[in-house]
Design a protein that fits this description.
Structural class: mainly alpha
Strand content: 5-15%
Largest sheet: 2 strands, parallel
Number of strands: 4
Number of helices: 6
Length: about 170
C-alpha cells in the first residue's frame, strides 16, 4: 500500500516548517511532536497491514516459501531503497516465521544465490544470457517463453518444495 509514499509530501512539509523554527521554542517542540506522531502513524499502518496479510497467508497455507534476499544490500540501492523500506519485507518475513511456528507449520527459505530468474521452469536449463534489465526471455533449449518474475516464482516454489521434502526425509 506504500503508506510512507502516500504521506511523504505531508511529512516533508512538516519537516520544512520545523527547519525554519528556532530550536527549543514551544512551536518547535509542537511541530516535532506532530512529525513524530505522523511517523508512528505510518509505522502502525504498515504493521497492521503486514499482520493482517501474514495472518491470512498462515491461515491459508501450511508451508510458505520465500527467497532469502539480502534486504540491507537491496536497501542501499538508490532506486529501490525507499520503496523497500516502505513495504517492510523483513518485518513481514519475521511475522510469517513466528506465526507459522505457533501454528506448527514451516517457512522455507530458498538460498539467495539460487538462479531462479535464469533457470527455465519448463526444462531446468540455466540461461547465462539473462541480465538484470531483461524482463522476458526465450529458453534456448526448449523454446519456452518466460516472464522473468513469473518464472522466478515458479522456480522458487519448486526449489522450496525440494528443500522441504529433503528436510522432511531427513527428519523421519
Amino acid at each position: 500500500p506504500e503508506f510512507y509514499k502516500k504521506t511523504e509530501e505531508r511529512l516533508a512539509k512538516l519537516q520544512r516548517q520545523l527547519s525554519r523554527m528556532e530550536k527549543g521554542s514551544a512551536h518547535y517542540e509542537k511541530k516535532l511532536t506532530q512529525i513524530q506522531k505522523l511517523n508512528i502513524h505510518i509505522a502502525n499502518q504498515r504493521k497492521d497491514f503486514l499482520h493482517k496479510l501474514s495472518r491470512e497467508l498462515v491461515d491459508r497455507y501450511d508451508v510458505i516459501v520465500v527467497e532469502d534476499i539480502d534486504l540491507r544490500a537491496m536497501g542501499q540501492c538508490l532506486s529501490l531503497g525507499k520503496n523497500l523500506h516502505d513495504n517492510g519485507f523483513g518485518m513481514f518475513r519475521n511475522m510469517l516465521t513466528y506465526k507459522l511456528e505457533r501454528k506448527g507449520s514451516v517457512l522455507v527459505k530458498v538460498d539467495r544465490w539460487f538462479p531462479s530468474t535464469k533457470t527455465c521452469h519448463a526444462c531446468g536449463t540455466k540461461n547465462p544470457d539473462v541480465k538484470l534489465g531483461v524482463s522476458e526471455w526465450d529458453c534456448p533449449s526448449c523454446g519456452a517463453h518466460n516472464d522473468r518474475d513469473e518464472n522466478a516464482a515458479v522456480n522458487i516454489k519448486n526449489e522450496g518444495r525440494r528443500i522441504f521434502i529433503e528436510f522432511f526425509r531427513q527428519w523421519l
